[in-house]
Amino acid sequence: MNRAALLLGLASLALGSLADPALAQSPRKRAARARPVQAALDQLRTDNAWTLEQQRTICEVAAPPFRESARAEEMARRFRALGFKSVRIDAVGNVIAERAGRDGGPVVVLSAHLDTVFPEGTDVTVRRTGTVMRGPGIADDCRGLAILLAVARALDAASVRTDGTILFVGTVGEEGLGNLRGVRHLLERELKRVDHFISVDLNGFELSHRAVGSHRYEIRFSGPGGHSFDAFGMPNPVHAAGRAIAAIADLRPPAAPKTTFNVGLIRGGTSINAIAPEAAISVDLRSESPAELGRLDTSVRQAVAAAAAAERDRWPASKAPLRVEIDTLGIRPAGSLPESAPIVRAAIVAAQQLGVRPASAAYSTDANLPLSRGISALAIGHGGRGAGEHSLAESYDDGARGYLGPQWAALLVTTLAGAR
Questions:
Q1: How confident is the model at residue 21 (pLDDT cuts 50, 70, 90)?
Q2: Is the pLDDT of residue 4 over 90?
Q3: Which of 248, 260, 267 is nearest to 289 (CA)?
Q4: 83/98 Cα distance (integer angstroms)
Q5: In the CATH scheme, what is the code of domain 3-211+334-417?
Q6: Topology of the domain covering 214-332
Q7: DSSP character at residue 188
Q8: 5 pLDDT above the threshold of 60
Q9: Is 163 exposed, middle or buried (0-12, 13-18, 19+ CB in 10 A)?
């Protein structure tokens, strides 16, 4: 049996089921269906320079938070230039390019996110030195977007046919306060069914089938305010915020499953000699465990309520009110699949057959949402080495074998979609 048949055969067996069970017993049939897949893998290696150029040029189209439309239009244009007839931008800005399979076949989403963390006006010029490219978002997630284009191009060039439909999706709202709005819309409004979901959003050959959930809040303390001397003796929103921060800092979440908290932003006040009318803190809570995340959420709310009560009790003679409001900035659900899950086994086997061993870790990606809803989902790495993500010094090094990233995505997606 040739290498192509071995690759596809082993990955298919890892899935635990085949669209055509006879293929599992027929080396000839398996070899026949594997030849186009091997041709696609070969093209991804041969045309690696094309993939890198896609990565560089798409990254020079700015995509600040909540303003991803220019990059979305450019991605749609590139999919159409590859010959895709069914390309659309949905109501929230996701780009969806469809590669149809047989009616009734599985629906497989291969995704990467369009947005960055960088504000409007950021210089997005990409500079290249050897195998290293530097520019905002070049690894996270311009590399993922380039892999979508490269895999789509290679499958078509090699005439790979699949039983399932493959949807190449560039999502909005993955970063920061986007609150996964792109993938939420995709699953709730746009697609009737998703059988498998792959997010290309990690480094190297990382694999994540454990999603880190997060709860993000802005907690505001407010009162009438007043002169620091004349009005002294009333509850102070800044002092209440300080009490809350200290109480949150004293919480002791479990080390395993890893559960964390952070007060990342503080705002409020008008002058050094004024009791502030308002103070606010922004809090980020995370855990791999939905149960632990819920417990931490409850503990933070109790700490905030106790801090406000302590500040009111500090000034019992005052009639001035002290109000507390908690606004939700974002909820990312946690979720996980065991290593024995078919999609996880298929991803591991596909990587191993390419000569690499994936490293499993928990991350927060677009895969959080489908995982939390019981959909077969995970996030995979891009093959190269990203560094400085979310900083202006962000870089991506393709090294000598960066092409293995697109190959991994292609082999996994054709396995899940049932190459024939």
A1: very low
A2: no
A3: 260
A4: 11
A5: 3.40.630.10
A6: Alpha-Beta Plaits (3.30.70)
A7: I
A8: no
A9: middle
